[in-house]
Amino acid sequence: RKEVEQDPGPFNVPEGATVAFNCTYSNSASQSFFWYRQDCRKEPKLLMSVYSSGNEDGRFTAQLNRASQYISLLIRDSKLSDSATYLCVAHLINYGGATNKLIFGTGTLLAVQP
Amino acid sequence: AAGVIQSPRHLIKEKRETATLKCYPIPRHDTVYWYQQGPGQDPQFLISFYEKMQSDKGSIPDRFSAQQFSDYHSELNMSSLELGDSALYFCASSTRNNEQFFGPGTRLTVL
Question: Across residues A54-77, what is the average pLDDT?
Fold first, then answer.
């Protein structure tokens, strides 16, 4: 079982739709969480950090539920340019320095249709 | 803003050859990470360095080694290459314990 699990999709949605991605993680030692976006054959790009209080950046809203070990990303008013793979990422870190790495989910593919 | 620089961007090698990938972190970033992404896979953590010392180690084969130099750039050395080593290799950098920013990657093809 992967440490970070996502629905691989694809999610095919029309422009203007609202779409939600979910993610679960198994390692309760995970310190922080992120959503990265990856276009085909390109590097992952940081979309947003995820906080327990929830955070919003324009059309994007992320939420973390530590009790349920669950992370979500909501995209409102989808644009064609939102088409990409969205990677849910856990940051495992030990402040003594022995552990510091990102654990990626398999990614969810979003295709926004005109 | 300056980003992570990786070289080369593309590399073609034969089986059993060696390869060296280079990474130049964002200025003032002191931590460098290496990830391997196979076709259709998510990125897998290989190794990281903080202030020129190895910080963490993931699923890096014994045939691979890496180091971080005094100017904070890092090199990933890969020997006895196998077909299964064909992948995208990403370097990321961060300040200590903060968000990681990825370079454009090196696409390695082993024939």
Answer: 93
Residue A77 CA to residue A60 CA, distance in Å, equals 9
Quick one: how many helices (H) and strands (E) in chain A? 0, 11
Do A100 and B50 make contact, defined as CB atoms within 8 angstroms? yes
Q: Which residues of A touch B25 (CB under 8 A)?
A: none
What is the predicted pLDDT for the residue at A92? 86
**CB A100 to CB B35 under 8 A?**
no
In this structure, are residues A33 and A90 in contact, taking their beta carbons and an 8 Å threshold?
A: yes
- For B20, counting Cβ atoms within 10 Å of its Cβ (0-12 exposed, 13-18 middle, 19+ buried), the class is middle
By Cβ distance, the residue of A44, A87, A101 closest to B48 is A101
- Give, as one character, the DSSP assignment of residue A81: G
**CA of B91 to nearest chain A CA: how many angstroms apart?**
9
| Residue contact A102–B92, C-beta within 8 A | yes
Strand arrangement of the beta sheet that strand B5-7 belongs to: B5-7, B19-24, B74-78, B64-68
pLDDT digits (tens, 9 = 90+) for B37-92: 999 899 999 999 988 899 889 989 999 999 999 999 999 999 999 999 999 999 99
Instruction: Tell me the C-alpha distance between B89 and B43, whole Å.
Output: 9
Tens digit of each residue's pLDDT (9 = 90 or more) over A100-111? 889 999 999 999
Total Cβ atoms within 10 A of residue A87 = 25
Strands (E) located in chain B: 5-7, 10-13, 19-24, 31-37, 44-50, 53-57, 64-68, 74-78, 87-94, 101-102, 106-110
What residue type is B67 in one-letter code?
Answer: Q
